[in-house]
């Protein structure tokens, strides 16, 4: 979803605190709060787009093909 510019609303999970640290959506441990956050995003399209753009930028910079290929080449060179 991040690569496609979709913000995430997560119940419990936030791997490496990426959602909070990079403002990619919301993470909560409360189901009712999760529902409220989804409703907030649906009502506030500019906010949804901003969080989605954050998600896309992060996913390209951290997990994009250029970075992955460079890491793969480095591993191969070290063998």
Secondary-structure map:
Elements: E1 8-11, H1 18-21, E2 25-28, H2 31-43, H3 45-63, H4 65-78
Parallel strand pairs: 1-2
Residues in helices, as a percent range: 55-70%
Give the strand tally.
2
Discrete helix count: 4
Low-confidence stretches: none
Strand order of the biggest β-sheet: 1-2
- Secondary-structure element order, N to C: EHEHHH
Query: How far apart are the termini?
Result: 34 Å
Query: Strand count, sense and closure of the main sheet?
Result: 2 strands, parallel
Roughly what fraction of the amino acids lie in strands? 5-15%
Residue-averaged pLDDT, rounded?
A: 93
| Global Rg | 15 Å
Morphology: elongated
Strand-pairing-aware structural class: mainly alpha
Features:
single chain, mainly alpha, elongated, 79 residues, 2 strands
Descriptive notes:
With 79 residues, the protein is mostly helical. Helices cover 63% and strands 10% of the residues. The chain has 4 helices and 2 strands. It has a two-stranded parallel sheet. Helix 3 (45-63) runs parallel beside helix 4. The protein is elongated, with a radius of gyration of 15 Å. It starts with 7 loop residues before the first strand and ends with a helix.
Short description:
By secondary structure, the chain is mainly alpha-helical. It has helices spanning 18-21, 31-43, 45-63, 65-78; strands at 8-11, 25-28. Helix 3 packs parallel to helix 4.
């Amino acid at each position: 979803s991040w690569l496609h510019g979709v913000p995430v609303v997560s119940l419990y999970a936030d791997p490496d605190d990426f959602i909070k640290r990079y403002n990619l959506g919301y993470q909560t441990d409360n189901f009712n709060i999760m529902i409220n956050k989804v409703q907030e995003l649906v009502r506030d399209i500019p906010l949804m787009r901003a969080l989605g753009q954050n998600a896309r930028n992060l996913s390209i910079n951290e997990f994009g093909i250029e970075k992955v290929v460079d890491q793969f080449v480095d591993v191969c060179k070290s063998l």
